[in-house]
Amino acid sequence: MALTLGRKPGEKVYLVDNQGREIEIEVVRREDKLSNYTQLRISAPQEFQIIRGEIFNGSDSN
């Protein structure tokens, strides 16, 4: 399953599993249009691992 969303700073998305555990993803800052990234804050129960994509996929690229 995939979902593509546009979010503004301060807006959140929640992922909830079948046990009711929540992962909260919040856009905390967007740089000006010349910048190439968005900052996110991810809050999850300790049972969940939060792994950046470049590490998860075993890539050394930025």
TrEMBL record:
InterPro entries per record: CsrA, CsrA_sf
Superkingdom of this protein's organism: Bacteria
Pfam families in the cross-refs: CsrA
This protein's name: Carbon storage regulator
Organism: Oceanobacillus longus
